[in-house]
Amino acid sequence: MSKLFVFGIENLDKVLGKSLAPGTLLVVAGHPGSGKTTLASTMCYANAVNGRKCLYISFQEHRDKLYAYMKRLGIDLESVEKSGLLLFVKFPLISKHEVVEHTINSISEVLANFKPDIIVVDSVTPLLKAVESDVAARAFIQNFFAELPRLVNGLAILIAEIPIGKESIDLGDIEFVSDIVFILKHRIEHGFLIRELEVRKARGSSIHTVQIPFTFVEKKGLVFFTPIILEEIPEIREEFIKLPCKKLSSYFNSIRKGEVVYIAYPADARPANILMLLLSIAKLNNFKALIISYKYSPKDMKTFIKNQLLTHGIDEEKIDKIINEHIVIRSLNPSSLPLTQLMMQELEIVNEVKPDIVIFHGVGTYSIENEFIWKRDLLNQLLYLRSLGVTVVRMGAINELYEYNVLMADTILRFNLEKINSKDAEYTLYVWRRGMEKPAILNQRDIDDCISDCIEILKNA
């Protein structure tokens, strides 16, 4: 048998799947409640669905309790058990040295009768603890487990407990001869429960990151947020995007796919017509635009856009047609997830929608607890979107992160409010694009003309 085994988790299979060749020994270690059993059960199920027999040996988990929990995560262990592809065997918790050899012999007997392709031992810690003072017995157990991949000619998954307060495992030769070592961790950070998989070893795979955040999702199971790190800077596409505004076009004719546009404005004076410019770009170029808002629900965003277009005399039926053909709106609460998971979830939405332009609305609303991580993750997100040829528009209020947003942008549009008398104020628009000798400043009349150009395109849709 040469076909690779699977994790049954999309992002793990992408980055580490090459490590799961027959003959692989995988150690999954971690603190209590960190997700070890869930990961092992997921792998057992995913491979059983593919026709590979899995033997699950437990010293701690009860069958009915485990099956019920996994079913809530969308993993039906009972179904593969009924098909004969899963055998769950529970042994008594080992506490005495003299019963260890009997337990090993019993495991060997089950192996010989069931002939699995995968074996999960949950966990090896009780056996090793029962003989911790007997060097010879401990070596015997370690060698037995180290040989499990060869005995099943497949995949062996050993679960090991790490006591609370410790970060290392003590498995002796098992850890040394293992092909993959995962450490599952969880901690509280800024009020969030952070779960991470630390990859200590993964033979056969190129590891770009050793820490992978994950979470449990009902009906979906384990979801891993594999950070995307590109070794090389992708080229910006040669495909050009036409601009609807004549005044902007006089400074630069177009922008290219994969570039980043940053639109900034005062926190207390947000121009209402910015989305008209973006919507008309989508219409003019026959693009699909994805709006990810950190501030408003999809329904509220759609209502806001419709109301703006209605004030400019565009027919409601035509507005609905434009929105349905060119816009997909999603919203995310940036305070509901750790920042890395938030950005990975955004990329999952992008991969689902496959837009030409993605507009991040309200980028100044989330708080940055760790600026280094934010800068790292944002850079990698923008480079990944560039590799897809997706143009990015980031729009938000001017705040303390303004300078870094500017550094990441190819084009900058910054609205400023200028007081003209004691009662009135007008917008000016600072415009800069990579390659321009110096920035340009558009006055209120220029901005109004630009919006008129955009509305004309939408009216003629």
Automatic annotation (TrEMBL):
Keywords for the protein's UniProt record, in alphabetical order: ATP-binding, Nucleotide-binding
Keyword NAD: no
Protein name: Gas vesicle protein GvpD
Entry's transmembrane regions: none
InterPro entries: AAA+_ATPase, KaiC-like_dom, KaiC_dom, P-loop_NTPase
GO molecular function, one term: ATP binding
SMART domains on file: AAA (SM00382)
Entry superkingdom: Archaea
KaiC domain ranges (all copies): 3-239
Chain's gene name: gvpD
Organism: Ignisphaera cupida
Record SUPFAM superfamilies: P-loop containing nucleoside triphosphate hydrolases (SSF52540)
